[in-house]
Amino acid sequence: MTPFGEAVRKLRLRKGVSQKEMAAALNVTPAYLSALEHGKRGTPTFDLLQRIAGYFNIIWDEAEELFLLARFSDPRVVVDTSGLSAEHTAFVNHLAVKIRNIDAATIQELARVLGNAGKTG
């Protein structure tokens, strides 16, 4: 699950609606909404983000946070290291191989080093 998917699921549960009901209101398929919540789809369009914010009738600050979570929730990240050092390229490729085995504490420490880039809450 992505940070965005988790946030949408919490909003949906707070409102007490099913994925099917929400999907119908947003004019998307329940399968797409499920895949979005579970991190199996890429970043939603800005139009869909606006419809989601409107559906939940959330205030601007909360909507802005949701949009930011969407930006950092693409499950298939591409990192362009062209023009960077060999060390940069090796590091990113090593991270791609090892990411599934990194524990939560290490992720939090890396997020701290990167300026809370991994912060989700």
Q: How would you sum up this structure, described in words?
A:
By secondary structure, this protein is an all-alpha fold. The protein has two domains: 3-71, 434 Repressor (Amino-terminal Domain) (Orthogonal Bundle); 78-121, no CATH class. 62% of the residues lie in helices and 0% in strands. The chain has helices spanning 3-15, 19-26, 30-37, 46-56, 60-71, 86-98, 104-113. α1 (3-15) runs antiparallel to α5. The two termini are 14 Å apart. The model has no long low-confidence stretch (mean pLDDT 90).
SSE blueprint and pairings:
Blueprint: H1 3-15, H2 19-26, H3 30-37, H4 46-56, H5 60-71, H6 86-98, H7 104-113
Helix pairs in contact: 1-5, 2-3, 4-5
Number of strand elements: 0
Determine Rg (CA atoms, Å): 17 Å
Total separate domains? 2
Q: Per CATH, what is the topology of the largest domain?
A: 434 Repressor (Amino-terminal Domain)
Secondary-structure element order, as H and E?
HHHHHHH
Strand content: under 5%
Provide the residue-averaged pLDDT: 90
**How many helical elements?**
7
Q: Class of the largest domain in CATH?
A: Mainly Alpha
What share of residues is helical?
55-70%
The CATH homologous superfamily of the largest domain: lambda repressor-like DNA-binding domains
What characterizes the major β-sheet? none
The poorly predicted ranges are none
Termini separation comes to 14 Å
What is the architecture of the largest domain at the second tier of CATH? Orthogonal Bundle
